Amino acid sequence: MADLSQIVKAYDVRGVVPDQWDETTAELFGAAFARVTDASAAVVGHDMRPSSPGLARAFARGAASQGADVIEVGLCSTDLLYFASGKLALPGAMFTASHNPAQYNGIKMCRAGAAPVGEDTGLADIRVLVERWLDAGGAPSNGQPQGTIRQRDMLEDYAAHLRSLVDLSGIRPLKVVVDAGNGMGGHTVPTVFAGLPIDLDPLYFELDGTFPNHEANPLDPKNIVDLRNRVVETGADIGLAFDGDADRCFVVDERGEPVSPSAITALVAARELAKEPGATVIHNLITSRAVPEVVKECGGAPVRTRVGHSFIKQEMARTGAIFGGEHSAHYYFRDFWNADTGMLAALHVLAALGGQEGPLSQLVAHYDRYPSSGEINSTVEDQFNRTNAVKAHYAGREGVTIEELDGLSVTGVNWWFNLRPSNTEPLLRLNVEGCDTASVERIRDEVLSIVRAESERDTEA
Q1: Nearest to 34 by CA among 53, 60, 9
Q2: What is any one GO biological process for this UniProt entry (predicted)?
Q3: Which residue, 91, 214, 235, 389, is most buried by CB atoms nearer than 10 A?
């Protein structure tokens, strides 16, 4: 019997199939989802993993058993599922484990209008029901007639909606390399880019949930080596890499150099603020300080939040923000039901690049202002004590401020860093930014010497 404590996370369900969960469990999740969201209808989609179609269909059966009419959109990216939820005003479920290895699968759930279902917004209640029904051997009827299950392809509608939000009609022709990592970008990119003045060079567009070429996680530098080489070899204007479920997009410039997601956040924010001066833009606390600077320079109001999509989406809804960005390459749009879509961010970058004659490196230089360490992960036995040791080291220093909104954030005269514990692993994540490289390296080494004083091993991402 499934141990839900191992697979129900803060924002989604995720675990190894069939070791940790299977289609029987998925069917119970579907029934519980229909109950908790009080859904008379729902939309269900899935990625290209071998286990995804069966799990998604089992979930649909479970929802239908509670009287919900289910629309199966089939193969889709996570942001296509959010589109379907928003467009149809229905709760939805996406079967994917994003960039995790092939043996994993999971469920990302939302209420109507793509509103997130997390631990505090329904997921804990769903878990309680599934655990109860696992013990009882099945989900009881709620007295409603059996719901229907039907199929509907929404890819063309999704692509049309995205293109309606960004004007690409007047851009110069661009040569674009896209690495889909054998994930869902291989399904969505050709349709979204159709008819645009883009010479598309596809890398790994074959849908293959075993990920034969590299992990579908573009934030790990080793997974964009092929993309970087292809851009340089072909003289392309830009490279784009999508993760497994294609909700995140990572950008490479014409030199094959990665572009910081913070710089992309600032660029897109500037474009959105040009449409609506004075609007609010959300950014999390590990994005570059360049982001709030650019937002203010463009007449907008920056709002800082904790890391994580639930916090971003809550603030988007609370403030009516036009846009939100995270350093993990998640980009949120008010015109996309406050949900994240890397594809829409990519279209903004293409529009900005194609609307002027200079190369991408020149375009983003204005938004990429400060040296940074990137995220450095350290494995530690005691996250709390190591963090407190770092805090004690900087406490009381002249010109230094300390806050604990999300982990430990310390700001000096010409540098800042954030040290956060992972929610799922024994890791501390360090991000450092400064006005010069020497300051970044000095603070990085200083903090790591304290963090790793009792570390067993370390990894860098």
Answers
A1: 60
A2: carbohydrate metabolic process
A3: 91
Return the closest-CA partner of residue 37 out of 79, 73, 89. Answer: 89
Domain co-membership, 17 together with 95: yes
Domain span at residue 85? 4-153
Q: What pLDDT, in 10s, does the model give residues 146-171?
A: 999 999 999 999 999 999 999 998 99
Residue owning tokens 């463009």: 298
On whether the CB atoms of residues 186 and 77 are closer than 8 A, the answer is no
User: Could you tell me how many helices (H) and strands (E) the chain has, helices first?
Assistant: 15, 22
State the distance between the two ends of the chain, measured CA to CA, in whole angstroms: 35
Domains identified in the chain, total number: 4
Domain boundary among 311, 342, 365: 365
**Residue 257 buriedness (CB in 10 A; 0-12 / 13-18 / 19+):** middle
- Render pLDDT for 293-344 as a digit per residue (tens, 0 to 9): 999 999 999 999 988 887 898 899 999 999 999 988 999 999 999 999 999 9
Would strands 13-16 and 104-111 be described as parallel, antiparallel, or unpaired? antiparallel
Residue 340 has what DSSP assignment?
B
What is the domain-level CATH number for residue 329? 3.40.120.10
Distance CA 139, CA 135 (A): 10
State how far the Cα of 77 lies from the Cα of 15, in Å rounded to an integer. 19
- Where in the sequence numbering do the catalytic residues fall? 98
